[in-house]
Every structure is written in structure tokens, then in C-alpha cells.
Amino acid sequence: MAGIYLHIPFCKQACHYCDFHFSTSLGLKEAVLQAMHQELLLQKDYLRGETIQTIYFGGGTPSILSVPEIQGLLDAIYQLHTVTPDAEITLEANPDDLTPEKLLALRQTPINRLSIGVQSFHDPHLQLMNRPHSAQEAVECITLAKSLGFDNISLDLIYGIPAEDEALWEQDLAKAFALNVQHLSCYALTIEPNTVLGHRLKKGKFTPAEEERVAQQFELLMTEAKDHGFLHYEISNFCQPGFESKHNSSYWRQVPYLGIGPSAHSFNGVSRQFNKAHNPQYVEALKLGQLPCTVEELSIEDRVNEYVMTTLRTSWGCDTAYVQQKWGMDLLTLHAAYLAKIQSQGLLRIESQTLLLTEAGKLLADEIALDLFLLPEETE
Q: How is residue 358 annotated by DSSP?
């Protein structure tokens, strides 16, 4: 089984926190889509005939595309690959794009999962982040999507937004759970240097939330999700039982995937490749029949470290027996002292040779993963 990711590099406007690859100019939209069709054709053998179980439209803002444009990309995939009848097919969308007409048209396509970028149900926060929709629009589009039969809906929310009122994040969560969606992806507001908020921070015109408050909001998120019957299956992801994101879970399990579009990444088990994050250069390369990507061969430590980084963030954890069987690395012995230390601190537990973070450990997931990374000399 494998997945396909399609990066749609266009947005109506730039969110003040986002450093993903996108353009607010739609002048090259048709050319980029033509190039993506060409890339699908050139890359048809990348997955070595694996059956496709997930397709994911990400971005950017994929919902900026017309429904025929979305269907055209899906048609190309179905023509070039074998897709399972029950494939999970996700469209990332902004609430303002999901008009009644668009939702009705999307119901006629194979799209069966919506990932809606709500971010906040508080209008001043949406304005701070320069989101193109209002809180009311978000509620209305989610309600409408459910009424039209979309029964696998994920919401993106952002916490750690500086605010006078401590209760705003709690109110956001209450609204999200009241809407009875199946999945939540929740991320702390991160201030990247080359963003509007990053520039404001540098000039002293923006003050981020205190780390302690961000941690408290994450703890509240874990508590509320559990109280509402949601599974915390990855650091930033929560779902009703049976509604895990199959596509993202495949990333975390090192399942091969093909990335199509400017800045998209691909993984085949032994190497990664990265497409140019530049729309005109991407288009020109494919006009010449060239793949606009850089290939990175992965060393054993690269592969082990990626496995540790991704699985440690999940509810199924890092299976050290699998690491030893696949790559010959005995993590339990190599990191015995460190593992004993963080176990005694209540950050991690070991069950059947599997490393599992506790709730306290989840607050330090990236730091713990880095401490468990292999160094080149350890694989020689």
C-alpha cells in the first residue's frame, strides 16, 4: 500500500504565521496543474506498482481549485495507479471556499474526507493570523458539510495564541467538540522568521504567549479530548475511534508515498526526494520533461532516526524490536542510561520493547526524540 500527496501551492491571502510554499497570485495556476499532470505521468513507476490507499490534497489551499480541476487530478491518478475502493481521499479546505454549491459538487467526486482550516472560533484571533474567513463561516460550512453527508471531517485548530482571556482556548475546544466532527489536528502557534508574525516579533511589535501558558493549553487539550472520547494517537492529532488520518499515519509508519507539485516530498523506503519550491521553475522543468526534484539517499542512521522521530509521537510508539530486526540497531542497549533516566522522570514507559511517551513526555517529544537519535559512528 502507498499514498499520493498533491501540493496545491496557491492561497487567496497569506496567513501571518505560515511559511509553507504558496503563492497568492493565481496567474500560474493552470500551468502548475498541467505540470502536475505531467509529473504524475513521469512518476507513474515511482511507487513500483503499489496499490494506492490514500490521496491527500494539501497546500497552500487546495479548496481554491474548481471541482473539475480536483476531479481532473483524481482521474489522472486513477488512470495511472490501482486505487483501493475504500481509499481515504482528503481535501484540505478553508471555510470560505466551502460554499453550498462547492460542497454539493464535491459530494459527486471521490473526496470522502475534509480537513477544514478553522484555526480559531474567535474572530480577533482569525484577524491576527490574517485568515480569510470568520468564525461564523467556519461553523456554517462544517454544519452544512455534515448535513450533505460528509461523515469524516477534521478541523485544524491553533493554540498558544497570545490573549488576555485564558478561557478562549477552552471555548474553541468546546465549540469544536459541540460540532461533533471526527478528527482534530491542533498545533501550537509557531513564529517562523520569514512570516509577518516573525517580522513583527523581530521589530518588537508582537509578543508570543509564554511557554508555560502554551504547555497548559496543550494539557487542557489532552484532557478535553480524552473526556470527549477522542483518542490521542499522535502528538498533534486526536480522533473518534476509527477515524485516524490514514494518510498521515502512513507517514508516521514509513509507508512509501509520492509527492506531486512544487515543494512536495516523496519517500520510497530508501530515499527521499524534494521538488523545487518555486512555481515557475517547477513548470519549466516539466515542460522540458524533467523531474524538478533533488534526491537524498538515506543512510541507516537517517532511516532509524526518522522512525524514532515519527513513531515516538504516536500512540503505538517506537518498536525497538522492529528497529533491531530491520536495521540491526539495539536502541535499548545503546540508550540504556538515558532511557532509565527519563523513565524515572515519568516521561516514558517501555512495554514489550516499545517506547511510549507519557502525557508529561509528550510535552518534550521532539527533545526526547533528538536525544535518542543515532550518531554515524553508532551505525558503523
A: -
Whether 208 and 163 have beta carbons less than 8 Å apart is answered as no
In order along its 380 residues, the chain shows pLDDT tens digits of 999 999 999 999 999 999 889 999 999 999 999 999 999 999 999 999 999 999 999 999 999 999 999 999 999 999 999 999 999 999 999 999 999 999 999 999 999 999 999 999 999 999 999 999 999 999 999 999 999 999 999 999 999 999 878 799 999 999 999 999 999 999 999 999 999 999 999 999 999 999 999 999 999 999 999 999 999 999 999 999 999 999 999 999 999 999 999 999 999 999 999 999 999 999 999 999 999 999 999 999 999 999 999 999 999 999 999 999 999 999 999 999 999 999 999 999 999 999 999 999 999 999 999 999 998 766 55
The H or E element spanning position 341 is: helix 336-344
3-class DSSP state for residue 319?
Answer: strand
| Cell numbers at 374, concatenated | 543515532
Distance CA 239, CA 182 (A): 6
Q: How far apart are CA 191 and CA 197, in angstroms?
A: 6
Whether the bond into 198 is cis, omega within 30 of 0: no
Which CA distances in Å does 162 have to 85, 157, 174, 213, 314?
A: 45, 14, 19, 9, 28
Whose grid coordinates read 475546544?
Answer: 173
- Kindly report the backbone phi and psi dihedral angles of residue 52, in degrees, each rounded to the nearest multiple of 5, phi listed first: -90, 125
**DSSP for 56-103, written as a single string:** EEEES-GGGS-HHHHHHHHHHHHHHS-EEEEEEEEEEE-GGG--HHHH
Contacts of 221 (CB under 8 A, 6+ apart): 159, 169, 173, 186, 238
| CB burial of residue 68 (10 Å; 0-12, 13-18, 19+) | exposed
Contact by Cβ (8 Å): 260, 319? no
What is the DSSP secondary structure assignment for residue 377, as one 8-state letter?
G
CA dist., res. 149 & res. 108, Å (int): 11
Cell matching residue 202: 523581530
Closest to 179 (Cα-Cα) out of 149, 140, 217, 218: 140
Amino acid at 304: V
Q: How far apart are CA 344 and CA 309, in angstroms?
A: 21
Beta bridge partners of 266: 273
